[in-house]
Amino acid sequence: MLNLEVIADRIGSSYWFFPGLFLVGGIALAYGAVLFDLYGPEIVAMQLFWPQLTEPSAARMFLSTVASSTITVAGVAFSITIAAFANATTHYGPRLIANFMRDRGNQISLGIFIATFVYCLIVLNVVRGDTDGYDPFVPDAAMAGSMILVSLSTCTLIYYFHHIPEMLNVSQMIASIGRSLHASIDTLYPDEIGDEVEDREKGGALFEDDDAQPGFFEIGSTVAGYVQHVDGDQLLTVADDRACFIKLKLRPGDFVHEGECLALYRPADVRHQDIGDEVKDLIRASVVIDVQRSPMQDLQFLFDQLTEVAIRALSPGVNDPTTAINCIHWIDSGLRKLVTRDFPPSLRQTENGDPRLLLPARDFNEMLDETCRKIMPFAATNGETARALLEMLAVVGKLGRSRNRKSCVAANIRVFFRLLSDELGPRTSEEVREFVVTRLANAELSGTFELPNVQTLPHEGAGA
In angstroms, rounded to a whole number, what is the distance separating the alpha carbons of residues 460 and 31? Predict the structure, then answer.
């Protein structure tokens, strides 16, 4: 069963929820306005400001024109927009289309157009003339409401035509991902780092290889896809209620195949040969698997989006180092915040201190390595991009409060040295080192790390 966090994320990323709400709202507003005309006090605004619309024929023509034009404008505008976004994603990555789907301004704009359309259709249906065999009836309050909705739709169209080019601006796309990254860091890792304690010290033999641990039952996945969300609280409750231990095998962002081991379960009584379908179903229900990755608990997904845009920008077909540097700046901004945050322990315990649950997760070093190693080969081909990446690593290393994280940053700087040495062709390793030191010095960060000895930098063709 999906929890509220997953439901809220799927609603926020859907393109039907808010338009659906506006559709229901438009229907309710139309019937409410008509009932007000039938049973409420008389409205004289229409006679004063739009006297021609008090005639049934004029009211019908107005409502039908508004309904047809509104739905036509909405259809054409959104079709063109989707085509423009599809073209943009060919240059900067297909996963950016999800940002368009999640944008609240787009969802509400479509909702206003749909509400205006359905409102006018319903009011049009209740307008009566002499030729209909009924007493003439034009709902004045409902007609006034249609005028308000027409004005609102016009303003929405103006906003929409401003908002879409702004979204298609690559800097805005990158900034949107960067802001999402910051929000996810604050949500997933809200605490500042304190004294680090290795999970292995607390977990003991629970971290050992699975083959060496007797008594564990494998729980396989019934579907294939990406792990989007893990409900750790529900898993801990399941383990605590049964006095057992659950060891999850996959992390948010990992791809799981059908039948692949999703978790290991060790019952309280190791003599049990079967754990029952109920426990298996509860554990499977705690892990949400879908066809695509989600940033709910997968922070690396947002780093990968920025990295993908940077790599595409540095490709020969695009050759846009400015966009790549923009991506590096937002990656830098996220890493500066992340390096100071405390990561929750993988081993979860009950209030009594009994270890019940092991949740594997990416730590800071893994995310830094995965992000930097993807972009380094491409950044090494451009001097300014290389400088931006080196400045990023130097500052992140300076902000790191643990020796482990500082060492990881230093290791990435050394790897980048080697890539630069290879990329610069016939230059010597000494020149490579000078090249890097110059860029760190320009950023006033050259003293952040002790640079490796030049003899440790392999260089192909150094003697050329």
Answer: 78
